[in-house]
Amino acid sequence: MHCGGSPDLLQETRVRHDQRKYLLRQLDAARAYEKQLKSELKTLDNDKKDETRGRLDRIENDSENETSLVGLHEMAQRAGSLVSRLSQDLATAKAVLADSFLTLGKLNRSQDDPDAIDIRSAASGSPSSPARGCVDRRSQSLAGHYSSRRLAHNGRANKVAMLRPALSLEAPIPTIQPLPRVFLDLSIEGIQQTARVVIELRPDMAPKLCENFTLLCTGSRGFGYRGSQVFRCLPGWWLQGGDFQSNDGEGGRAALGDDELISAETTELEPRPGAVEMLCMSTNDKGSLMVGSQFFIHVKKYSYTHVFAYVIDGLDLVDKMTQLGDSTSVYRPTKTITIANCGLLAA
C-alpha cells in the first residue's frame, strides 16, 4: 500500500488523530461523571423528602419526643451541605465538558495546519476559561477513583459511593502504538475472486513467532508463503498451510535465523476462534518444541498454547474453506486453495 505525502506530515496527522481520540475519551468521562452526579442529586433529594415526611409523622404521633424537631433540622442542614457540594461538582463537570467541546472544535479547524493548536495549552483552557479555574480548584477530587460521603439518618450511617473518573486535561497524551497486521489473499480453484484474510500479530506476547511469520509473508528472505497451498482443512475446526516446499505437511522451514526450525514460544493468549498458531514440527536436545513455517488458523475455540496472532477480518471465509476438507483423503481440500499473495499491511 502506497501512501503519499511527507513523513513529517503523516506523523503530524497521526498525532492529531491520537489527540482527538484522547479528547473524545475525556468527553465520555465528563458525560458519565455528569450523569452520576445528577443521579445522586436526585436520590439525595428523594431521601431527604422521605426522611422529612417520616420524621413529621413520628412527631405528630409521639408528643413525648421533644427533640425530634432539633434532629430533623440538623439532618436537613447536613443534607443541604452535601447537596451543595454535589452541585458544585456538577458545575465543574459541565465546565470541563464545555471546554473540551471548544478544544475539539479548534482541533477540527486545524486539520490543514499542524501548528494551529497546541493540544496541551488548549486542553487546559484559556486564563479566562471557566473550566481552567474549575480544573485548578478541583483537580484532586476529579483525579480520584472513589470517594465516599456519609449522611446520618436517625442514627444510621448510609454510605454514598461515587465513581470519580480521571478528568484531568493536564495529563500527557498517551502514545498509541498499533499492532502489526499481515494479509493472506486466498484463491479457490474455479473462483476468480480472491478472499483476503487479515491477521493481527501480537509481538508483545510472541516476538519470535511474529517476526518469523512476517518474514514468511513478505518473502524478504527469498522464500515464503506466496504461491503455497492450504493443504489440510478440518471442517468447522481449522485449516493448515505454510508448507511452501511440498504442500503436503512434510516440508517448510523458518525464516528467522539460519536454522530450519526455531524454538516455539508458549503464550497465554486466549485460544478463541480466529487464533493463529504455529505447528510444532519436533523437539530439540533440551526438549523444547520447534516450529518452522506451517501454521493453523482456528475457527473454533480449543486448547492450544502457541497462539501468536488473531484473524480480525475474513474469519467467515476461512470457516467456509474448512468445509472443503475431505475426510477420505486426510482432509485435503476437494478444491485447491492457494495463497495467491501475502504481505505486511501499512500501519
Written overview of the protein:
With 347 residues, the protein is an alpha+beta fold. It is 39% helix and 23% strand. The chain has six helices and 14 strands. The strands form three sheets. Strands 3, 4, 5, 6, 7, 8, 9, 10, 11 and 14 form a ten-stranded antiparallel sheet that branches. A two-stranded antiparallel sheet has the order 1-2. A two-stranded antiparallel ribbon has the order 12-13. The longest helix is centred in the N-terminal third of the chain and has 55 residues, at 7-61.
Question: In percent, how helical is the residue content?
Answer: 25-40%
Give the distance, in angstroms, between the N- and C-terminal Cα atoms: 10 Å
Shape: elongated
Number of helices: 6
Low-confidence sequence ranges:
112-169
Strand content: 15-25%
Largest sheet: 10 strands, antiparallel
Determine Rg (CA atoms, Å).
Answer: 31 Å
- Could you spell the SSE succession in H and E letters? HHHHEEEEHEEEEEEEHEEE
Secondary structure class reads alpha+beta
Total beta-strand segments: 14
Mean pLDDT, to the nearest integer, reads 75
